[in-house]
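Allow me, if you will, to draw on your knowledge of protein folds for a short while. A protein sequence and the structure tokens that stand for its backbone fold form the material at issue. I would ask you to consider whether the tokens describe a fold that such a sequence might reasonably adopt. Thank you for your consideration; the sequence and its tokens are set out here:
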Amino acid sequence: MIGALLRVTGWLTAALVVLGALFWALVSTPESNVWMLSLSLLLILALVAVSGVALDVAMRLWRNLALRPTGVGELVWPGLRLLPAIALFALVWWVAVTTGAQVEASRGRITAAIIVRTGWANPEAIFTTARWFAALVAWVVGPLLALGLFGALTRGTALASAGRWVRQALSLRTLAAGALLAVALAWFWPWLEGWRPALPPTAVQLVFAVAKGMVGLAALALVAAGYIRLAALEPPSRRS
């Protein structure tokens, strides 16, 4: 278990480095002519393909399966399987964020209604709970459902076992573990960002910045590895 976790985290960290380089190239590409637009499109396709392959290999590493030689087809199909998962995540994320924004926009009207009906003059706890719930749906439920769909598509059982992978992604155990990982990352990331020890203005600063960035990527990879383990892998079948 620990060995598989380390392998998956290391693999996903390397994949994040490649994805970061591709994203940097994408945002740095000027859209001045048709050739630059074509290059941007190729970079977007490369981002999807690399992301799909990264998830596919991570699932194999979790299951201790041998890595097969990767041909052109195996670079394309994981990316295609990733597209419905991205669409599902985007839908869940949009619903959560939009609903949370609507609640915030209606704060005055909701507060007034609560005061009139209950006499509770300071219902701030309700809005805090709503913000946390929206964040839970956007950053825990959304990714877990998307990974569950990707795993089912990889196994070829997305439709035949739709209820199974959805229940797996939305089980209390999966949601609790996913929320714990998300909260840990939400606590760790600001601390890492604010960690700026006094260093001499030499190459040491550059080395520290690179090391700090790698630690951040490793933290993201660790959470992603946990999400994949929770939602994307097929659970062991129950014996009757």
